[in-house]
Structures are given as structure tokens and as C-alpha cells.
Design a protein that fits this description.
mainly alpha; 3 helices; elongated
Length: about 60
């Protein structure tokens, strides 16, 4: 337990109190993406990057002059 407190204090000194929540959030999202990758699920980035299917519309009828 003492080692964990020491590591936490060192991290607090390195990154500061304001950056710790964002650092923890990014680590958590990285772990979640890693777990999804192990399960074979596509990541959120892959879903966003996938191009939407193109819907073909029929040509407009020609107008008589």
C-alpha cells in the first residue's frame, strides 16, 4: 500500500492536480478500446471512419421544351 501512495505522489508532482482527471480518463478509454479489440468489436474510431453507404437516387425525368 505504501508503494501505491508513493507512485501516486510522484504522478501528482509530475502532472499536477489539474491534469490528473484527463490523464485517468484517457487511460480508462484506452483500456476499454483494448478490451473491445480483444473481443473483436470495432472501436469507436473505426465506426466513425467508416464511410456511409452511398444511396443512389434515380435520375430526374427530362423536361420537354
Amino acid at each position: 500500500m505504501g508503494e501505491m501512495v508513493l507512485i501516486f505522489l510522484i504522478v501528482l508532482l509530475l502532472f499536477g492536480g489539474k491534469k490528473l482527471p484527463s490523464l485517468a480518463r484517457s487511460i480508462g478509454s484506452g483500456i476499454n478500446e483494448f478490451k473491445k479489440g480483444l473481443n473483436g468489436q470495432p472501436s469507436e474510431e473505426e465506426i466513425v471512419r467508416k464511410e456511409p453507404e452511398k444511396i443512389e437516387t434515380p435520375p430526374a425525368p427530362k423536361r420537354k421544351k
